Amino acid sequence: MRNRSRIFWGLFLLVSAAILIVSQLHLLTYTFTFWTIVATIILVAFLIKSLTYFSVSGTVFSLAFLAILYAKPLGIASLSAWTILGAALLISIGLSLIFRPFLARHRPWMKKIYKYKYQWNGKGDFNSDVKTVDDPDVEVDVKMGNSTRYVESNDFKSADINVEMGNAKIYFEHVNVQDTAVINVNVSLGAAELYVPRDWNIINGLDNNLSNISENGVRKVDVDSPNVTVQGLVSLANLKITYI
């Protein structure tokens, strides 16, 4: 995590310097406004962060928004923003399917992910996948579906949650943590809700890529509370942590 953060900030500063120099030297015929430069730096920051986390959707949509921003100099002004975003969605799905083995090698938490199967219910959607898990190490993988997990463990250690264009709800209500635990999340173009005991001391190690991360409920942390780190990347998605 620290290595990726160092790479991100290093590349971000280098690219920001390049954009600033090019804009001031007027090396390009296209005139950049101040807010265009600011938006470009922000989008490039998200692009670099997505690349360091091997996030396909984050990378594709960062490029899509840059394409919308620079549609005129790129010669694609005839394309509407919705057309570009729609194409980005299809490209994101296609690349995720093609590069899934590569992504699994670079995301350790995806190597042992359960291969869930969804059944078509004839009404235009997939049945929600609901299971109770009693292992100390929990693994959840959701793609274009809905999953609910009820975790029951007397010695919870870790959870690896991967959600792409889907929704997941994970309940940690009947869970005991002996000392520390970690929850790895990778949420892209979807939503994940974590329901955790209010006496957990949640340590936020999340990276936010154009997403909404929120907390709900009242925490009651004391000296005996276990430390639980929630880390990973939330890209163009929603993550909600609710204390129960």
Automatic annotation (TrEMBL):
UniProt keywords, alphabetically: Membrane, Transmembrane, Transmembrane helix
Annotated InterPro entries: LiaF_TM
Keyword Disulfide bond: no
Domain LiaF transmembrane as annotated: residue spans: 8-101
Residue ranges crossing the lipid bilayer per the database entry: 7-26, 32-48, 53-71, 83-103
Superkingdom of the source species: Bacteria
Annotated protein name in UniProt: LiaF transmembrane domain-containing protein
